[in-house]
Design goal:
elongated, 8 helices, signal, single chain, mainly alpha, about 180 residues, DUF3106 domain-containing protein, DUF3106
Length: about 180
Amino acid sequence: MNAIRLLPIVLLSAALSANAQQAPSANLPAWDQLSDAQRAELVAPLRDRWNRSPEDRAHMLERAQRWRSMSPADRKDAERGMRRWERMDPAKRAQMQVLFEKTRDMPPQQRRETFALFRALLPLDAAGRKALLQQWKAMTPAQRDAWVDAHEPPRRGPGPKHGPGPGPDDHGPDDD
């Protein structure tokens, strides 16, 4: 039940991050200094979503717990990924959702290969995609490992990399 109380904190941190661009952080009060009305206003969207979607509650709770266990650097990477996701056009977002669903339960090495291949296929035309896929199918496991190592994007910082990473057009002014 304590984890449910953490959900508003996660939302508050996201809300304060957005507000930090609009107001100096020195003017923003700590959670304990917020009035009951301010807390209710911040929590209302979460409460509505929680009540509206009982089937999503376990997932919401798990995400809140995962967020609390993240280091500040991992949180920054997650926020960067969320901003990148919000800027994606609907077609690319749909591609990413399909990729995520297909790779969710894959072993880590297979997921790494899939993401590397996906990133390499994105900028290619149909003929280029076909050629790369034929080349991929002809590779031995050792050749695939070497290919993935050669085509992996540079890491942004410490910690494991999740998801497909940046695409060729996913960089924006607020990605730093």
